[in-house]
Amino acid sequence: MNIHLPRADVTERTLAIVGELKGLEGPLIPILHEIQDEFGYVPEESLPVIARELNLSRAEVYGVVTFYHDFREHPAGRHVLKLCRAEACQSMGGDRLAERAKALLGIDFHETTPDGAVTLEPVYCLGLCSCSPSAMLDGEVHARLDETVLEALVAEARR
Amino acid sequence: MTVRIYIPRDAAALALGAEKVVEAMAGEIAARGLDATIVRNGSRGMHWLEPLVEVETAGGRVAYGPVKARDVASLLDAGLISGGAHPLCLGKTEEIPFLKRQTRLTFARCGVIDPLSLEDYRAHRGLLGLERAIATEPAAIVAEVTESGLRGRGGAGFPTGIKWKTVLEARGPRKYIVCNADEGDSGTFADRMIMEGDPFVLIEGMAIAGIATGATKGYIYTRSEYPHAIAVMSAAIEIARAAGVLGASVLGSAHAFDMEVRTGAGAYVCGEETSLLNSLEGKRGLVRAKPPLPAHKGLFDRPTVINNVISLASVPVILDKGAGYYRDFGMGRSRGTIPLQIAGNVKHGGLFETAFGLTLGEIVDEIGGGTASGRPVKAVQVGGPLGAYFPRALFDTPFDYEAFAARDGLIGHAGIVIFDDTADMLKQARFAMEFCAVESCGKCTPCRIGSTRGVEVADRIAAGIEPEKNRELLADLCNTMKFGSLCALGGFTPYPVMSAMTHFPEDFSPVPVVEAAE
């Protein structure tokens, strides 16, 4: 899903978000979260606005955006499927499940299906390690996954 | 009287279908005209039984599990409302051996109460610790925490009281309490469970820390991967503020303390305390060199207490019941209780709070009940992605900071991940290096580059290319990372790698690929 927003809109919404949050101590990360919630990613056009309002250099803001895995520089698919790839899930067949997910969607991690329906991402631990393997689809958690449950999740995301 | 039916809101229960059970239960209660109400509690920590439904009866709470939405009608037919018999009935909750064998101090209320009911919290000895703190001199509160023997539950095991004393004695116009809730280790979920199941205990612990050290502002830095914990924690803070537990006058005293939740952005290294502080300040999560200690120059260069969730959540019971009560549990220099998180390929996975001192074998075989797959246990990784892999030969190691260190391991945040005999330890060692490469903040060269070289060396061993030479190289690389990195990410990645290589040498000697003769 590619949202092409007019530059003026991005600037205006960014200004509003920064205005709302810049009173916080250490406001940059909360601002970036809010911007990603608003646009689905952190648009490049919003960076100079944030930098100016917080009295930072553009490089500093860009450096923060790129440091954290959560912040996207491009929009994701309509649904985001995160598969836990950490040790507890590995011990319960997580590797096999990851391969299955890739095959079902025809994409690798960090990619989006050509129809823009699903983005597949690895996640290192959802804290559901006692009921591995686990996944998160659009913020909803799922545990004790097997191929059947995974196929149902993928089908749901594809709709 | 209205019957209370408990269905957890803990993420583990939700991930296993609790929401559908609630829907079905609410529908049946309405359709049958029953005088019953559903309470969304935290989890009792018996995750193989989730969703665990409990009903309050005259004789105590009766448990049923694991319950699926389609079981609800038959449960009510069997008289669940009065604790009736059913194939899913587990008897009285408190009598379930996994729960009965525990010593629940920090998790005493988790799964028992409605996490967002301050009345429930008070009715279960909540706020007694804070009330006592208000009536006590700051130095005496710090002394009490020191005497309890409480050590940092995040993994480093530094005495909490000493940290607090340093901040109490530090001068500054503003001091902070920062709660490290960036629980990124695989195999751990204790912080998540407390935040979702008993958030007021963390608020109380942080308020006590504030009063003890003169800090007036607290931050809980948690993970974006924990949306449910963030929601419950934030709601609890609002409730506490409205009730005067937080604010300009804590419980009507002269002390001010307020707090908020901040969400990380998917960087594992931000669980390291100085990296976390940089992230809170809105910077890249780069590790800082110490000194200066955060206790002297922490958040925004102000004196800062930075403690793990479980350390802070253990403070209220210490203040309530006294240092001696807490200190009497445990062994050696590891005092009190530790919430073990039993995970991975295990039959009875979940949270088990107990005094220090159980052996790894007791934990894995007796409490965990062995593997979920039914195959033999091959290895147990203790302490997250930076913890060592232990073979069965070391199962006599008691759960204690020093005992694990003596065997080249660490207890970390007490996550225990079990692997059956299908695990390939060379692959696990490679993953440790790969994870370090993905998550390194990039400050120290041995961590940033060494981890990538580590992956390549592991691949060469797997391909049978000069295995002996490459094993030596891997050990040498681990040595460089261990001594050449500022923080635990680069410094401890060698633990899983070296333990895998030391205890499971057979996995590091693959049969060489036979090249076709020309």
UniProtKB/TrEMBL annotation, chain A:
Top EC category: oxidoreductase
Gene this protein is translated from: fdsG
Keyword Iron-sulfur: yes
GO terms, molecular function: 2 iron, 2 sulfur cluster binding; metal ion binding; oxidoreductase activity
Classification via Pfam families: 2Fe-2S_thioredx
UniProt remark on cofactor binding: Binds 1 [2Fe-2S] cluster.
Keyword terms of this UniProt record: 2Fe-2S, Iron, Iron-sulfur, Metal-binding, Oxidoreductase
Domain of life: Bacteria
Residue sites binding [2Fe-2S] cluster per the record: C84, C89, C125, C129
Similarity section: Belongs to the complex I 24 kDa subunit family.
Keyword set includes Ribosomal protein: no
InterPro entries found in the cross-reference section: NADP_DH_HndA-like, NuoE-like, NuoE_N, Thioredoxin-like_sf
Protein known as: NAD-dependent formate dehydrogenase gamma subunit
